[in-house]
Amino acid sequence: MKTPVRVAVTGAAGQIAYSLLFRIAAGDMLGRDQPVILQLLEIPPAMDALKGVAMELEDCAFPLLAGMTLSDKAEEAFRDADFALLVGARPRGPGMERKDLLEANAQIFSTQGKALNDVASRGIKVLVVGNPANTNALIASRNAPDLDARAFTSMTRLDHNRAIAQLAAKTGAETTDVQRMIVWGNHSATQYPDISQATVKGKAAPDLVPRDWYEKEFIPTVQQRGAAIIKARGASSAASAASSAIDHVRDWVMGTPDGDWVSMGIPSDGSYGIEEGLMYSFPVTCRNGEYSIVQDLSVDEFSRSMMQATETELREERDGVAHLLP
Ligand code: NAD
Ligand code: LMR
C-alpha cells in the first residue's frame, strides 16, 4: 500500500463537500490504491455540522481513509497538505452573478493563500472551487509567493462536462464519444464553450450541428447552466460540482487520455494572446502530474472575440481586488 497523502478540503460541512469527501475517501480522485488523510476546514459555527460529516465518513469504514482532522484554523488544516480543494465560500442565490460574490469571498482566499504558503507541502496542488473561482484562485496564488504559481488552478471542469453532455445529447451520441471540447476563460456567463475542435465519434462537431444552435442555444445553455440549476433546485449545483472537482484533480495527477484534453483554469503564460498571469481556462493535457496548454489550435474571428470578452471580464475582476494582490 502507498504512503497516505494529505488532502485538505475547505467548506467541509457544505453542500459540495457532502458529495466530494465521500468520493475522495472511496478512491475516486487519487486511485483505489492511494490512502488519504482528510484535513477538513470549516468556520466555527459549522464545526458541529462538520463533526456529523466526520462521523458519517467514519461509518463508511472506507479502506483508504487513513485519518481525518477537523479544524477551524487554516494553518492546522493546510499543514503538510499535498492537495487543497478550496470549496468553502458563499454560493450565489437567484438573480446574482458569480462575481457579485467577490466582495464576500475574496478575503477568504487571501487568508488561505497565506496559510498555504506557510504550512502546506511544497509540492501541493490546489483546486479552487469557491466562486468566483478564477479570481479567487488568483488571489490565493498571489498570497502564496513561495509556492509555484502553477500549483493554483480553478475549476471549469463542470462547464467542460456540461458542454460535453449538451453536445452528446444533440448528436444522439454517448458522452464518451465526444472529445476535444474546450471551455475558454472565466467560470461565469462570459465563458466560451467552444466546439470548433470537438469531435463526436471522430467526426468534426461543427459539421454535425447547425451553427444557429451552436451560437444561440448551446453556448448560452452552458454559460447559464449554473443559474438554471439554482432556479430549479433553489440551491447551487453540488453533486455535479463535486464530481467535476474529482475529475479535475484525477486527470491532473493521473493524466488525460491519449488524443483528448480537458479544460482547467490555470495561470496564463500568454498563449493565444491571453494576458500572462490571468487565471484563465485553457484546453490542457496532463502528464506526470503537470499540465500543458494545447498549442496551435486555429482561432477564427468569432472565437477570438469570445475569448477576448471573457478575458476582459477576468481583468476587471482582478482589478477590482487589486488591494488583495500583493
Ligand atoms: P455551502 O454554503 O453549502 O457550503 C460552503 C461551506 O463553506 C459552508 O459550510 C461554510 O461554513 C464554509 N465556509 C465559509 N467560509 C469558510 C472559510 N473561510 N473557511 C472554511 N469554510 C468556510 O456552499 P456550496 O454549495 O458547497 O458551494 C461552495 C462554493 O462553491 C460556492 O462559492 C459556490 O458558488 C461554488 N461553486 C463553484 C462551482 C464551480 O464550478 N467552480 C460549482 C458549484 C459551486
Ligand atoms: C455552477 O456553475 O453551478 C456554480 O458555479 C454555482 C453557480 O453559482 O452557478
Can you characterise this structure?
Substrate binds at residues 92, 98, 131, 162. Residues 5-150 form the Lactate/malate dehydrogenase N-terminal domain. It is an enzyme of class 1 (oxidoreductase). With 326 residues, the protein is α/β, with parallel strands linked by helices. It has two domains: 5-154, NAD(P)-binding Rossmann-like Domain (Rossmann fold, 3-Layer(aba) Sandwich), CATH 3.40.50.720; 156-321, Lactate dehydrogenase/glycoside hydrolase, family 4, C-terminal (L-2-Hydroxyisocaproate Dehydrogenase, Chain A, domain 2, Alpha-Beta Complex). Helices cover 40% and strands 19% of the residues. The protein has helices at 15-26, 47-59, 74-77, 102-119, 133-142, 157-171, 211-223, 225-233, 239-254, 301-320; strands at 5-10, 36-41, 65-71, 83-86, 125-128, 152-154, 178-179, 182-184, 192-194, 199-200, 203-204, 262-267, 279-287, 290-293. It has a six-stranded parallel beta sheet with strand order 3-2-1-4-5-6. The chain has a three-stranded antiparallel beta sheet with strand order 7-10-11. It has a three-stranded antiparallel beta sheet with strand order 12-13-14. Strand 8 (182-184) and strand 9 form a beta hairpin. Helix 1 runs parallel beside helix 9 (239-254). The longest helix has 20 residues, at 301-320. The chain is globular, with a radius of gyration of 19 Å. The structure holds nicotinamide-adenine-dinucleotide (NAD) and (2S)-2-hydroxybutanedioic acid. (2S)-2-hydroxybutanedioic acid binds at residues 91-92, 98, 131, 158, 226-227, 229, 236-237, 241.
